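go over both lines:
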Amino acid sequence: MAQPIERVCDYPRPPALVASADHILIRAGGALLAESRRSYRVLETFHPPTYYLPPDAFCERRLRVAQGRSFCEWKGIAAYYDVVCEHSSIARAAWSYPQPTAAFAVIAGWVAVYPALMDGCWIDGERVQPQPGGFYGGWITSAVQGPFKGDPAHPQLI
């Protein structure tokens, strides 16, 4: 049976937080970075879903605390991580909310990655396309329909 299509223009604002049992696989630096069947999807108007995985889904010592913070009006203050690879690292390629707002409390310490900086991200075997624009961490699959914020073809959304 075909998966229903979600139109990101129908996602709410403020964003919704939805638990997922999809099989998530993330590779970076030529190796496995994370794998899980437990995640949360953040669904925000005109954004493809952003996936947050529990910290124990990530391979040991592959995340290193990075400098800097950012602020999300919905989730609070984000902390960043470098992804450590065998011979290098990917700066600020992942983030989490150590003390999110009450509405997002269940993802405290859970980690999201920028798919564009990974070797690849997969949801139930389907390779994810990164959300356009370097600032965004959305995961585009055949189950979501745009237009997406950050896409130069839709400058009104940038």
About this structure: The mean pLDDT is 94. The chain has one domain: 6-157. The CA atoms of residues 30 and 151 lie 28 Å apart. The chain has no helices and 15 strands.
